[in-house]
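User: I'm curious whether this sequence folds into something compact or stays loose and floppy. Could you predict its structure so I can see for myself?
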Amino acid sequence: MTAPVDELSVLLKSLSCDLRVYVSAGRLRPADEPGDLTKAVAEQVHALVVELHEGYWHRFAHGTAGPVSASQIEVSLYPKSPAEATALLGELASADLVFPGFAFMDRAEAETIAARVVRLLGPGTCWWSNRDDLSVDGVTSFSVDTFVIGSDGHRFALLIQVGDD
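Assistant: Here's the prediction. I'll summarize afterward.
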């Protein structure tokens, strides 16, 4: 039995931090073809980034650029293992990317909640981030952003941290 989206939303919400760490969870549109999963998750990232840009972060955008397109986000999806996703969710929920010494929440607590999110989506879940081993492909027009998204093909869980230095 899979966990309902509401339970994912509640857990993710506990990882959020006003004006820095944002979350979203829900159902994906049905995928017709095998490659549609990455397209669908990129669309979810894009939808949240556009919402953030229009709601607040446009003030800090560099130049007149807005968020990158969903197709550009799709190209920026680097696969992550469940363990990597858990660690990155915990890191993004607990430590500021711009000011690493500033903690949003206890790292151990964040990783415990992140592990629950990963478990709720299940062992067959695919995870991605815009961070690879050496760099981050920015998806916003802000100075700093990093996201993690996972999907079991039907539901998704997304966390993004944004900042401006």
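Summary: Helices lie at 5-13, 36-55, 70-75, 82-94, 107-121. DSSP finds five helices and five strands in the chain.
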